[in-house]
Amino acid sequence: MSEHLHTALSLAAQGVPVLPLRAGKVPFGNCPACAKSICGGRPNMKTAGPCTCPYPCHGWAAATTDPGVIGSPTWAPAWRSAATLAYHPGGAGVTVVDLDDQAAIQWARENLPTTRTVPTTRGEHWIYRGAMPSANAVRPGVDIKSLMAYARWLGPGTGTTAALPDAVHALAVKESSATHRAPQALSVPLSGQREKCPHRTPAYLERGIAMAEQRITEASSAVHATAYRTFLAVLSTHGRCGCLTEAHTARLFTAAQAKGETARHCIDAWTNALTTLGLSHV
After folding, report:
1. Cα–Cα distance, 181 to 158 (Å, whole number)
2. CA distances from 85 to 9, 114, 130 (A)
3. pLDDT band (50, 70, 90) for residue 197
4. Neighbours of 208 (CB within 10 A)
5. What contacts 255, CB < 8 A, 6 or more positions away?
6. pLDDT tens-digit readout, 120-145
7. Residue 176 reports pLDDT greater than 50
8. What is the CB neighbour count within 10 angstroms for residue 191?
9. Is the terminal CB of the chain with fewer CB neighbours within 10 Å at N or C?
C-alpha cells in the first residue's frame, strides 16, 4: 500500500473526503462521461456528489470518504502514480484560508483570529471550523478554499481550530462584488462568424487552447485572476471569427475547475472578458 493511499484511508475514516493528485497539484483527468464536469461542477451544486464512473475525476467532486472507492482496483493506478493527495475542505466542514507568501501571513496575523495552521511550500494554510463558498484572489496572496474546491493535504498542522470568523466571509463577499457581474447563461461562447477567419490551419487554434489550458494549470496562486486573463487572451485572438466552440470553452473551464474554480466563477470570468473586449453581443 502506498503512503498516499494509507493516509487517504486514515483521513477518510475521520470523515475527510480525499482524492489523489498528480504532479503539479492537478487532479487526475476527467473521464469521458464527465468531460464538462456534469456530475460535480454545475453552478447549482453546493456539495460534492458521486461520479457515474469509478475513476477519480472532475476535481473536488471526486473526493470521497468511502474506503471501498478509495481502495478499489479502479483507483489503484491513480494512487500508484499520485504525487500527493488533496481533500475537499467544505465536505469536511472546514474552510482553508490559503496564504501564499509572508506578506499574506503577516496580514492574517493582524486581521484574523488565531487558528490551526499548516505550513505550505511558500506560506501557510489557516484552517477554520465551518464551510462557505470558495473564492480565489480575495486579496494579494490569499485564496479561500471550502465548498466546491480542493486543497492539498499537508498534515494536521498545529493549534486549535477556531470557528469560521465573519472576517473571512467578508473577504469573499468583497471579492465577489468587486470582480463578478451577475451570472449569465453561456450556452454558446460566440455565435456566427463576424469577421474573416485569420487562422491558416486548425492547428493554430488548437495550439492556442492548449497553451491556455497549460497557463491555468500551472497557476500557483490567484487562480481566478489567471483564468480571467487567459480567457481574455483567448477571446482577443479567437473571439471575433466564430471559431471558438463549446468544446473549447469546456476545456478551459475544466482546467480552471481543476484548480479550484467553480463553474459559476468560470462563467462570470468568461462573460466579463467578453464585455471587456466588446464581444458580449457578438
Report:
1. 39
2. 11, 26, 22
3. low
4. 18
5. 212, 213, 216, 217
6. 999 999 999 998 888 888 899 999 99
7. no
8. 10
9. N
> How would you write the chain as a 3-class SS string?
CCHHHHHHHHHHHCCCCEEEEECCCEECCCCHHHCCCCCCCCCCCCCCCCCCCCCCCCHHHHCECCHHHHCCCCCHHHHHHCCEEEECCHHHCEEEEEECCHHHHHHHHHHCCCCEEEECCCCEEEEEECCCECEEEEECCEEEEEEECCEECCCCCECCCEECCHHHHHHHHHHHHHHCCCCCCCCCCCCCCCCCCCCCCHHHHHHHHHHHHHHHHCCCCCHHHHHHHHHHHHHHHHCCCCCCCHHHHHHHHHHHHHCCCCHHHHHHHHHHHHHHCCCCCC
Contact between residue 48 and residue 16 where contact means Cβ atoms under 8 Å apart: no
What average pLDDT does range 108-116 have in this prediction?
Answer: 97
Q: If pLDDT is split at 50, 70 and 90, which confidence band does 196 have? A: low
Question: Residue 5 is placed in which grid cell?
Answer: 493511499
178 has pLDDT over 50: no
pLDDT value at residue 228: 84
Q: 3-12, 28-37, 230-239: which has the highest mean pLDDT? A: 3-12
How many other CB atoms sit within 10 Å of the CB of residue 154?
A: 15
Q: Are 123 and 104 in contact (CB under 8 A)?
A: yes
